[in-house]
């Protein structure tokens, strides 16, 4: 797989997740070791990970996720081009508890209470590169995931469930991880060409 293949075919994998095949703990550990090579502000490495494989815990998290996802859906009218993505989102929500592993990515600290562009960029920008590193590392091992956040509507409840110290640590994303079922891996569709979104020596004309 070339770099371009890896980067253009690492999708939001939902229907392609094999819910019947366990994932290897060592594979997950290896991928997490790659994730921690991501950049972070002043190299503070704020990431913490909680890997959930226990069926009862997954069931409880999935319940919170489904409630969060339902509220998200209720609050929006999707554009026609978003309908397939939301249908696949619903598919995942209904089966989240069956996904072999859920990786919660957390960041030490709470989001800034007096947000500024700089503080927000530093807080969230110091954690999402690790999330993406992790997704790419998983993909190189035939494992798929989706960046998800719907459970964050119940962040405190999930923190209590897993013993995450809510006042000191923020959950930022959850990756449901499974082997990918066999089949072609086309690039992600529906991307506006970068050429249309880029200005050179000034804003886009
Ligand atoms: C910050 C963020 C939050 C997301 N939250 C969810 C989520 O809660 N549930 C979900 O199914 N997908 C979620 N997604 C996945 C997006 O829907 C997906 O990345 C996007 O539609 C592109 O999909 P594609 O790469 O397969 O084209 C999230 C993505 C991002 C970047």
Automatic annotation (TrEMBL):
InterPro entries: Nitroreductase, Nitroreductase-like, Nitroreductase/BluB. One of its GO terms (molecular function) is oxidoreductase activity. Keywords: Flavoprotein, FMN, Oxidoreductase. Signal peptide: none annotated. Residues 15-177 form the Nitroreductase domain. The keyword Flavoprotein applies. CDD domains: Nitro_FMN_reductase. The keyword Transmembrane does not apply. This is Nitroreductase family protein. It comes from Nocardia bovistercoris.
């Amino acid at each position: 797989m070339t770099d371009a293949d890896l980067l253009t075919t690492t999708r939001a994998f939902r229907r392609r997740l094999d819910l019947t095949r366990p994932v290897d703990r060592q594979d997950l550990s290896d991928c997490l070791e790659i994730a921690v090579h991501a950049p972070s502000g002043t190299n503070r490495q704020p990431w913490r990970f909680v890997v959930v494989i226990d069926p009862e815990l997954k069931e409880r998290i999935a319940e919170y996720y489904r409630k969060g996802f339902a509220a998200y859906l209720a609050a929006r009218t999707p554009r026609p081009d978003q309908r397939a993505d939301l249908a696949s989102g619903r598919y995942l929500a209904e089966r989240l508890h069956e996904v072999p592993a859920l990786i919660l990515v957390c960041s030490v600290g709470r989001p800034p209470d007096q947000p500024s562009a700089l503080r927000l960029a530093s807080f969230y920008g110091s954690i999402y590169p690790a999330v993406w590193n992790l997704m790419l590392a998983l993909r190189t091992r035939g494992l798929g995931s989706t960046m998800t956040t719907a459970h964050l509507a119940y962040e405190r409840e999930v923190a209590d469930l897993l013993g995450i110290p809510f006042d000191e640590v923020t959950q930022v994303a959850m990756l449901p991880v499974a082997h990918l079922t066999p089949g072609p891996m086309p690039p992600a569709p529906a991307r506006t060409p970068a050429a249309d979104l880029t200005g050179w020596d000034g804003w886009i004309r």
